[in-house]
Amino acid sequence: MTVASPWQASVLTLFPEMFPGPLGQSLAGKALREGRWALEAIDIRGFATDRHRSVDDTPCGGGAGMVLRPDVVDAACAAALAAGPDRPLVVLTPRGRPLDQAMVRGFAAAPGVVLLCGRFEGIDQRVIEARAMTEVSIGDYVLSGGEPAALVLLDACVRLLPGVMGAAESGEEESFSSGLLEYPHYTRPTVWNDRAVPPVLLSGHHAEIARWRRAQAEAITRERRPELWARYAAANPIAASRAPLAGHPDAA
Ligand SMILES: C[S@@+](CC[C@H](N)C(=O)[O-])C[C@H]1O[C@@H](n2cnc3c(N)ncnc32)[C@H](O)[C@@H]1O
């Protein structure tokens, strides 16, 4: 099949061979082959202008490591944006705003994204500012390059594109979609190693099952992620007023 104008991802990287990598498999890979999204990995080194094809230089002010040059990065950004100027230009950096599902939904709703992967000590600040890049982090730890972060961001976006996920509801009920972590899942056998599936899930009573799942989702969010729970509780005062659920599988 062909999609009229697929969601378009451009990745600026010194290691274009890392793409599509894991995104060539499973849901994302199938969607890529079906033309639901498109991916181009652009080699930043292709925009170097000297005979050594240099992309980096030593940090002004001294210190360890190397910094990606603004002129080279800027030329790479211009080339990527020429193929889709309405897309957000995102730089992956530990200093960025932590990626969350709301941001992912925003990127997935755009015509696509341009992702800039840093290496070494990072990227010259002037090009980040001049291009008004959106700075995004995938967590409070340091990777050796932006490529794994770009793969994470792309994976999260692609599964939200129309026609990519099999069952539409699997996206509506999962963690973060309602501001809660997801309830626990069970399948057959109904008893495994003396552990039984919660009886309500075998009752066939849909309203009871929905109530149980909602209570589990609230309990696990309350226990594990107080900051998510505080936000949810502010928006759902009735849920917040209920006593914490006893006997939750993760309860201490
Ligand atoms: C070795 S890191 C540079 C770390 C930088 N000197 C610092 O202390 O913030 C090289 C590149 O990996 C990427 N990177 C590392 N950690 C990341 C994270 N948590 N989220 C997104 N990108 C990250 C960025 O593109 C960064 O420019």
TrEMBL record:
Question: Which Pfam families does the entry link to?
Answer: tRNA_m1G_MT
Q: EC class of this enzyme?
A: transferase
EC number(s) reported in the record: 2.1.1.228
Enzymatic reactions: guanosine(37) in tRNA + S-adenosyl-L-methionine = N(1)-methylguanosine(37) in tRNA + S-adenosyl-L-homocysteine + H(+)
Q: Does the keyword S-adenosyl-L-methionine apply?
A: yes
Sorted UniProt keywords? Cytoplasm, Methyltransferase, S-adenosyl-L-methionine, Transferase, tRNA processing
Residues recorded as binding S-adenosyl-L-methionine, renumbered to this chain, are 118, 138-143
Query: Where is each tRNA methyltransferase TRMD/TRM10-type domain found?
Result: 9-230
Where is it localised? Answer: Cytoplasm
Q: Which InterPro entries match?
A: Alpha/beta_knot_MTases, tRNA_m1G_MeTrfase_C_sf, tRNA_m1G_MeTrfase_TrmD, tRNA_m1G_MTases_N, tRNA_MeTrfase_TRMD/TRM10
Lineage: superkingdom: Bacteria
GO molecular function list:
tRNA (guanine(37)-N1)-methyltransferase activity
Extract one GO BP annotation from the record. methylation
Identify the main location. Answer: cytoplasm
The entry describes its oligomerization and partners as:
Homodimer.
NCBIfam families (alphabetical): PRK00026.1, trmD
The family assignment reads: Belongs to the RNA methyltransferase TrmD family.
* Protein's job: Specifically methylates guanosine-37 in various tRNAs.
Name of the protein described by the UniProt record: tRNA (guanine-N(1)-)-methyltransferase
